[in-house]
Specification:
The protein is an alpha/beta fold. It is built from 17 helices and 19 strands.
Length: 492
C-alpha cells in the first residue's frame, strides 16, 4: 500500500511538472528564487518592502552565505598587492611587555611612547586604544590611599602632575588621534557622546542608513580634549569574518568617522569630513581631495593583502622606547599604536582566512585608500544581476521545452550534452566574474546567478527524470502482472 501511495504522488507531481511543458513550475521557481535573492541583499535605491522585515526571523539567508563565500574566493584568488607603505605599526608586543611591564601601563609610560614616536616626525599617530577610567597609579590616586600618618608624603604626591595630565600633554604636542568603540548597551564606563570633528553632509542626511549606536566606550574627557581627533575602531563581523568596514557610524544624533578617515583629516588639516549621500544612502566619504566610494550604509568592502606581505610595517614598542628604530620608519608615515601581545589583542579573521590583530585591519584600510584599490558593489550592479537572471531564465523557460529546437536536438544527439553545456556556461560565468573583480574591483554575485539558473534548468531535467522513473515503475508493474498471469496458467 505504501508503494502505491508513493507512486501516486510521483504521478501527481509529474503531471504538475509537465503542465504547460514545465514552464509554469520553472517560472514560479525563477520568480521565487529571484525574490529570495533580493530579500538577502535589497538594493538601496528604493525602500525595502515591509514584507521582507517580517521574513527576517525565520527565512534562512542561504543566498547571503553563498555570496560571502564567493567574494572570499575572489580575494583569496587575487589578494591585494600593496603598492604603497604609508603605515607603520608600533606593536605593544610580548617582548615589550616583558621588558617594560604588564598592560595596562601607567599613563606616563604611554606618554613616553607617544613622545618617542612624535620625535621622529610622523604625519599622524593613531592610538588603537581607549582609556575610560582614571589611572590608579597616578600620584594623586596613590596619595588618596596613604594613611593619615603619611600626610607630608601625600601632599608631595598631590603636587605632582597626574599621569592623565602627562599623557594629555603628549597627545596635545603630537598629531594624535584616540580610538573609541561604539556599543549597543550602556555600561559603567560608557558615555553617550564623543568629542569629534564635524562631518559635513552633502545631500540627504544618511543618519538613518548607517549603523547607529547610542553608547560609546571612549577615553577620559581630559584626554579627548588634548588629542587632535577621535575615531571609531568598530569593524563589521559576518559569521566571524571581517569583510566590511564602516567609514562612518551614527552615535546618537550625529555621525562620527572611523580611525583611518580621521587620521587623514588630521594629516590634511581639514576642518571636517565630507559625506556625500542621496536618497539611496551614502555614496562616498571624503577628506580634502580624497573620496572613497561606499555602500549605502557607509561601509566599504575591504580588499585584503596577505599578512605575509605586510609584516615589515611592524616595529616593537620596546625598540621605539630604547631608540633602536630607524627614524625613517616614522618620518611622514601614519603611525598606529596598538596591542599585539598574547591575550591582549582582539584577533580578527580576514577573508583570506588569516587571523590578524585588530590594528592590522585599520592599517589595511589606510593602505587601500592610498593605493586607490577599492572593491565596488554599487546598487546598479544588484539590479543588473537581477535583470540578467530574469532575462536568461525566461529564455531558458521559453526555449528549452521546444523539442524541435537546435538545443533539444543537440542534447538528444550528444551523450551527457546537458551536463557538459551546464558546466561550460557556469565556467564562463565564474571566469567573467573573476575578470571583473581583477580589472575593476567589481563584486559580481555569480553564486546567486548560478543557484537560480541551475534551479530553473533543473525543473526540466527533473521532469525527464521523473518521467523515466514513472516509466520504469510502470514497466516493472507490467512485468509483475505478466509474471502473475503466467503463474496462474501453469498446471496445478
Amino acid at each position: 500500500m505504501k508503494r502505491f501511495r508513493d507512486y501516486s504522488w510521483m504521478v501527481f507531481f509529474l503531471k504538475l511538472m509537465r503542465a504547460g511543458q514545465g514552464r509554469p513550475v520553472a517560472l514560479a521557481v525563477l520568480l521565487g528564487l529571484s525574490l529570495a535573492n533580493l530579500y538577502s541583499e535589497w538594493p538601496g535605491s528604493m525602500p525595502r518592502p515591509p514584507l521582507f522585515d517580517k521574513l527576517d526571523d525565520f527565512l534562512p539567508d542561504s543566498f547571503g552565505t553563498a555570496r560571502q563565500l564567493l567574494f572570499d574566493h575572489y580575494q583569496r584568488r587575487f589578494p591585494r598587492v600593496p603598492a604603497s607603505q604609508p603605515v607603520t605599526i608600533v606593536a605593544i608586543d610580548d617582548k615589550t611587555l616583558a621588558a617594560v611591564g604588564q598592560w595596562p601601563w601607567p599613563r606616563n609610560r604611554l606618554a613616553s611612547l607617544v613622545d618617542a614616536i612624535a620625535a621622529r616626525k610622523p604625519l599622524a599617530i593613531g592610538l588603537d586604544l581607549y582609556m575610560p577610567e582614571a589611572d590608579q597609579t597616578s600620584p594623586d590616586k596613590v596619595a588618596d590611599n596613604l594613611p593619615a600618618s603619611a600626610a607630608t608624603l601625600a601632599a608631595g604626591l598631590r603636587a605632582l602632575p597626574s599621569h592623565e595630565t602627562i599623557l594629555a600633554n603628549a597627545l596635545g604636542a603630537s598629531p594624535s588621534i584616540l580610538g573609541a568603540a561604539a556599543v549597543d548597551h550602556a555600561a559603567f564606563d560608557t558615555s553617550t557622546d564623543l568629542r569629534s570633528a564635524p562631518i559635513l553632509v552633502h545631500g540627504v542626511d544618511p543618519l538613518n542608513r548607517v549603523k547607529r549606536y547610542h553608547y560609546v566606550l571612549a577615553s577620559l574627557p581630559e584626554l579627548q580634549a588634548a588629542a587632535h581627533g577621535q575615531a571609531m575602531l568598530n569593524v563589521a563581523l559576518e559569521q566571524g569574518t571581517v569583510r566590511r568596514i564602516p567609514l562612518i557610524l551614527g552615535l546618537g544624533d550625529k555621525l562620527v568617522p572611523c580611525m583611518p578617515v580621521e587620521m587623514l583629516r588630521v594629516v590634511t588639516g581639514s576642518a571636517a569630513v565630507d559625506v556625500y549621500a542621496n536618497s539611496a544612502g551614502v555614496q562616498s566619504v571624503g577628506v580634502a581631495d580624497v573620496q572613497v566610494p561606499t555602500q549605502p550604509d557607509g561601509d566599504i568592502w575591504l580588499h585584503f593583502a596577505s599578512i605575509r606581505a605586510t609584516q615589515n610595517r611592524y616595529v616593537s614598542a620596546r625598540d621605539v622606547l630604547q631608540g633602536q628604530v630607524d627614524p625613517e620608519r616614522f618620518r611622514n608615515k601614519l603611525v598606529l599604536v596598538g596591542l599585539t601581545g598574547t591575550g591582549l589583542t582582539d584577533m580578527r579573521t580576514t577573508t583570506l582566512g588569516e587571523t590578524v590583530p585588530g590594528i592590522e585591519i585599520q592599517a589595511q584600510i589606510i593602505e587601500t585608500i592610498f593605493d586607490g584599490r577599492f572593491l565596488l558593489r554599487p546598487v546598479w550592479l544588484k539590479w543588473a544581476e537581477t535583470t540578467f537572471v530574469l532575462a536568461f531564465g525566461l529564455l531558458i523557460i521559453w526555449y528549452l521545452p521546444h523539442t524541435d529546437s537546435r538545443l533539444a536536438a543537440f542534447v538528444r544527439a550528444v551523450p551527457k550534452a546537458s551536463a557538459v553545456l551546464g558546466v561550460v556556461l557556469n565556467l564562463l560565468l565564474f571566469a567573467g566574474s573573476l575578470l571583473l573583480f581583477w580589472y575593476f574591483g567589481l563584486l559580481v554575485d555569480a553564486a546567486s546567478i548560478f543557484i537560480i539558473l541551475s534551479a530553473v534548468m533543473g525543473c526540466f531535467f527533473s521532469t525527464a527524470l521523473l518521467d523515466l522513473s514513472v516509466q520504469t515503475r510502470r514497466e516493472a508493474k507490467r512485468r509483475r502482472a505478466s509474471a502473475s498471469r503466467s503463474a496462474d496458467q501453469l498446471p496445478r
